[in-house]
Amino acid sequence: MENKSSVLFDFTGQVVIVTGGSGNLGSAVVRGFLAAGAHIVVPERGEGQAGEVFPELAGSRDHLFMDGLDVTDPQHMQRLAQETTARFGRIDALVNTVGGYRAGAPVHETALETWDFLMNLNARSVFVVSQAMIPIMLKQGRGRIVNIGSRSALAAQGNDAAYSAAKSAVVRLTESMSADYKRQGIRVNAILPSALVSEADVQADPTRGVIPASVAQVVMFLCSDASSIITGAVIPAYGERF
Fold first, then answer.
1. What is the spatial order of strands in the sheet that 64-66 belongs to?
2. Rounded CA separation 118/110 (Å)
3. Is the pLDDT of residue 167 over 50?
4. Does residue 46 carry a pLDDT above 90?
């Protein structure tokens, strides 16, 4: 799947930041952009996470892995922006894949700590990272931002209040940023995957979810010139095959 991206898309020389780049979806997005020739920037909170997932890139000056960064901390993200532009001189695309889920409970049993955790990780992160990178894109007169929401953003299930509310916030943030910047060369879109599953799971039951590499292809499309007329879109990626 990743090899196909080098045929479908060409990002040679472009600089792409992927939050959550060592995660299940994030790593698929990173590998897709790598195959298409991009310079990749991955911020990580832990030490050496991205290096463990991408050992072949260790020490490469063509890419930037930065440890010890919290994507919900504005100062950390300003540092990321500064380090990225110092090395590469530009930021062409930002893909916000970082996020998380905790098993749900009805509202009266949901701890405030769980609400804050899910809102911060899923929604605040998108706001803080985007706020740091957009000024650079404005100076360039060009940029692409893709946010990862969830199917739950449009239709919450029971025991899902905190997570679905956080992902709904991502959708509204995407639409607002698109309206703010579409006349300044910055396109902002969101993808709403259903559950991320393996290829074997999809083969066994196509309605169970979608594989990360397939979502990565949609991300790359939205960052490419092929989608130049699309901004403010909220794209379902549910995986069902009819």
1. 64-66, 39-43, 15-19, 93-96, 143-148, 186-193, 234-237
2. 11
3. yes
4. no
Residue type, 161: A
Residue with tokens 């298409």: 36
Query: pTM here?
Result: 0.93
Looking at residue 1, its pLDDT comes to 40
Query: 94 vs 202, which has greater pLDDT?
Result: 94
Q: Please give the Cα distance from 15 to 93 (Å, whole number).
A: 7
Distance CA 14, CA 11 (A): 5
Per-residue confidence (pLDDT) for residue 7, from 0 to 100: 57
Residue count of the chain, please give it.
Answer: 242
Please tell me the predicted confidence (pLDDT) of residue 240.
66
E strand map for the chain: 15-19, 39-43, 64-66, 93-96, 143-148, 186-193, 234-237
Burial of 1 (C-beta count, 10 Å sphere; 0-12/13-18/19+): middle
**What is the SS3 assignment for 235?**
strand
Domains of the chain are: 2-237 (3.40.50.720)
Give the three-class secondary structure for 126: helix
What are the residues facing 148 on neighbouring strands? 191
Token pair for 107: 């509202």
